[in-house]
Amino acid sequence: MENAGLIFDRIPANVDERQIEEPLLSTGVDPETIAAKLSVAKAKEVSARNHGAYVVGADQILAFEGKRLVKPEDLKAARKQLESFSGKSHALHSAACVVKDGEVVWEGISTAILHVRELSADFLDWYIEQTGTEILSSVGAYQLEAEGVQLFEKIEGDYFTVLGLPLLSLLSFLRDIEVLKK
Length: 182
Hints:
This protein is of the alpha+beta class. Helices cover 36% and strands 25% of the residues. The chain has a single domain, classed as Maf protein (Alpha-Beta Complex).
């Protein structure tokens, strides 16, 4: 959002994501809906503390072989996850919303399908050495804007979706409500 010229404050939401997710996962709710509900919960919590402000909430879920993955705890777990991705595809579901005074005024969701190339042990050694613990901040153990781009043979979907936000539709909404110039 900064690169798009938006001026904003980052305010962490005081939300227990697992408490929201668990009942949804147990009833078989799809990943897109879970990401959307988490984005709304975060934005509503921050909105309650920032009256009159437009609050953007966002969440991203990685779905792989019918499971929802979370950020790897350490480099060993990251490597294991990357090995499991080798030669396969996974989906990133990125949801965002805008809340003002506790009311959702916009919601958007987008999905990207990422096709991981066959990854050799030598490549993974190099990759983990290059990236270090930075990859632990990403659910997929990669950052597409850095060395992580080398993991993929094909990506279907929007670049910003992979980064975690349906940015183009969010910018369109912000122009519609004249927060941004048309």
